[in-house]
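Quick one - first record:
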Amino acid sequence: MTHSGCGGESDANMVERKLPANVDVGALGQAILEAAHGARIGVTVTLVDGPRPRCVYINEAAAEILGWPVEALLERDPLSHIVAEDAGRIQERFARRSAGELGERSYELTVLRRDGGRAVIEVSASSAMLEGHPVVFALVVDVTARVEAERARRRTEAQFRDVMEIAPEPFGIIREGKFVFANAAYAKVLGFAKAEDLYGFPVTCRLDPGEADTVRSREKFILEGGRLAPMIYHARRVDGTIVELESSSGPCDFEGQPAVITMVRDASARKALEAQLVQADRLAAIGTMAAGVAHEINNPLAYLMLNLDWIARKLAEGARDPASVDALIELLREAHRGAERVATIVRELRAFSRADGETRRRVDLAVVARSAIKIAGHEIRHRARVSTSFEAAGPVWANESRLEQVVLNLLLNAAHAMPETRVASNEIRVQVRPDGDDSAVLEVADNGEGIPQEILSRIFDPFFTTKPRGVGMGLGLSICHGIVTALGGRITVHSAPGEGTTFRVALPTTDRESIEAEAPPSQAPPSGQRPRARVLVVDDEISIAHTLRELLGANHDVTATTNVRDAVAAVQAGGDFDVIFCDLMMPGKSGIELYEELLARVPALAKRVVFMTGGAFTARAAEFLTTIGNRRIEKPFSLGLIERIVREMAALKSGVE
């Protein structure tokens, strides 16, 4: 230990007045100095009664902290080691000490080391008398690392603020249930004008009580080191509207205190985007098969038109030769079968492209598989043959069009997995079978080249594809996975190079009854027992309106019109119709407006409207159909269906009356 002119006895004098008389002050002072040396705490004693302060004692620890030899420090002005920005402040402190003012006992300053570096020291000073002279006794600790860490933290926080402010995603920091930081995006999603409006704002005050309790529990759990999955909650914006937000949170240190950082996303917008992707994938699949659909429709249309042409030529001959009537009837039957084939194809495509992904009912996997095979037939037949094995399996509770999309994607995926150079040996195997008492399984397998193990785990990832650029977006299998999972099922894959690929879809079976199940058609009474009904037909397609008038006119009193204005006039003229067949979408006033006008004028008659639709209707029309209880039939329809509806509606009216 090094000192200059002030040994242990003088050190003891500095604390003598605070100790009992029986304490060996010199020994105590020496012990304190040795303890400070062992703890690497610097000790300095500085005279302050002269024109300039002068250091009279400094230990090795202080010299090491200051970066100068002990001898140099004892010879130099103590203020010369202090940086210019701190020197004036420290000189003023010494002056106040000399005048008897105590001032602050602890402070920080920056010193220049001999090697040109800087060190930040924390000084704890105390005034004393040494041999009749006022001195400052100081303990010196190097706090450079701590100060640099604090400065780095502040820089990081400043950078964090800058980055978060321009981030498009909403970010916020929460402490004790309140926002201490939020970016502009967070303010916007909650409807505030600026982020500062959120500061001090309780996070839970705009949540449902149940969700508010959950958020408080989550904050406590996260601060205790827990990890939680994202949470979806409903927040009330400033304008009163409700927004669905998905929140991901984790612990952080903000402004030196523990806090929770949270990022939110508008879950409503994400769900809408996901629905658009699913629909886009479905439409893309339909586009891929457009040529095949045209082929399937054109074949029956060809012989339907030829048969009709031939019938037109032979009608005159049939009037002269009754024997040829049978041949004409057979030609008509063939034409009818062709029209039914076209109608079936259109129905399948319409069901597949429909966006009613939330409507579920009892679905037979085998029926869905057969329909998907038909739709994909033209695309597959030039690549592979399809073999099927359908065992009796329980129905699943699903949306038929969504499930058909899954099967179609798997079929097309299998077709594209096999080389076109070996069409004769390429095979796609489709199997439906039960799996225990509570599950049904669909398998689509191919004998293609298989999938390498290194990419097998990624095939359900969005936008991952092994196809060439421009061939698919890599969404098909990802969407299949999402649809099956949403239905409570699982989709798995087994594949190896050279062994082909098998996709397995397992879905829980159900004993629920379908709400949409229709009652079996009633038996038609003999023609002599059929009551005549009053029928109004409204359809802007002249041929449909006139044909229905001619076909129904033999047994019923039929009024046909092509616009809503004439239909209203027929009602006002005293038309108490048993049933009104009305096209849903028409130019000018639509079937919706006719219904609303009837509801205002003759409510009982509005209930007798049966809507006819070709399947393409607006969002307003779709919503309208779900809010009323009226029947709906899709074009094309058969005469038998129309006649049955007339009988049922007439009987219903008679029963009511």
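second record:
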Amino acid sequence: MDAVRDPATGAIVCRVQLFNPTEAQLAASPGIQNLISPRSAPGTSKRTDPGALPVYSPIGLDNTVRDCVPHNVLGAGNMSQQALDYIHGDTKFGWGDVEQSFAELLLNGELHEGWGAGPISFAAGLTWRDQSFRDDAGPYDITTLVSGPRNDPALGIRGIPNGYATGFNMHQNSTLPIISGDAGVWESFMEVNLPIWDTTFGNQQQTLSADFAFRRSDYERSGKADSWKLGIDWQVLNDVRLRATKSRDAREATFSELFDAQGTNGQIQDPLYNGKAFEISVTRGGNPNLAPEEANTVTAGVVWSPSFSFLEGLQLSVDWYDVQVEGSVALLGAQRFVDECRNNNLSSLCDFITFNSNNEVSRVFDTYQNVAQARVRGVDYELAYHMEPDFFVSQTESFSIRALAGFVAERSNTPAGGTPQDVSGGLATPELTGVLTSTYSIGPVSLMMQGRFRDESLINTTWTEGVEVDKNTVPSYTFWSSVLSYNGETSSGATWRVGLNVQNVFDKRPGTVPGTASERFAAQSLTGDLYGRRYNLNLNYNF
């Protein structure tokens, strides 16, 4: 993009070609003298460490300078095919392999005949898992010998924004990771189902049962973690059932959360500079120092299945839940790191930020963190109804409808020493979502319609409308899909089914979410179906 006229010929050339630095000059560039390749041996941090591989160029190898083709970045269609070929460069590729060894011993049966309410049953077992994986990438010169581009005016290299200069390699926005890792665990577990009470009161059946489970997990990386669950199920009347659980839960971080990392660029607003926007580098992904998540979960619900003749086939349920996670594994986002560091001087997050000589943010390692606490609470609703209508005397018919809805009252993250941030009502966690599915069958033909709904959402839960942004909401969104199918059977007893699926029947466009000018597309549709109406024809044959 730094194109000038050659003073000798008058031709438009890449400015760096007027300097024509040699490979030796590139290797001696001051900006890369302390850099080592991501392929360096584990634990290395500087060039003098055993196993460290130095970076050899701030802008690339393999005739990067000689073959450079200038282009005009203003307007569309101004780039020549030669410039496109130069920018695309070599084909990148990646490969990976995953290995898992698994063994389990399981016992189950009845411990005791019980006390009249039913037998006491149990299950117990021992599990061992060992997993390892490796991801690698090429070509070698991009992934090993070159860093993100660095300025060196003495060699004619200039104009590279600070946010790009700290990337992994020349292809920062599509960096393929070079990672590997392993994890192993031994687990022992048991579960007991205990029928407590079973009686009849008039014509009403009443039962009470309890369920208890315990699991000990011994992780190779992070040590022991215990989890347990106690559940109660009480059939109060024929039509009403109550249920409740309390549990202590544990989850080990996944391979992706532990090891995977990708480099990209981003934009933050720095409170130290009165909210001024800066283009920065962002490393997002794995953190091998993560500990397991542990959570306390409480749920309680009621199920109503009316036995009245005119409501037969109806079932309603409401379940309340509250989950509080300690050491929750989560991505906080680059902006959150900057805000907590600048506003609250939170050293545990400041350590993940790189500053330049002017104390400006140049890079944020937005890796997964064990945040101090995460909490989610809300209510789930379900309505189900099934009947067999008689519209056509000579045909077998059925009709069913099922509605699921969820209300999220809170979804918050609190980093250690930081302030809670509730993202319920945001794009990723709308307060209200729902799915409605209805199916009607007559003989071999059936029609299913399904609607999906998400509530109006905030673009950013930390913004105040009229202050940071004029409009901070994306409208609610509903789209429908359908399946029309026909079932048949051959004379030999084989069965077949042909179905036509239509997704997004009414071609409903999702809400548009505005982005920043630094993104490739300044406006993105992220709140619904992105592809519009589409069709799928399928045939199943069983014999």
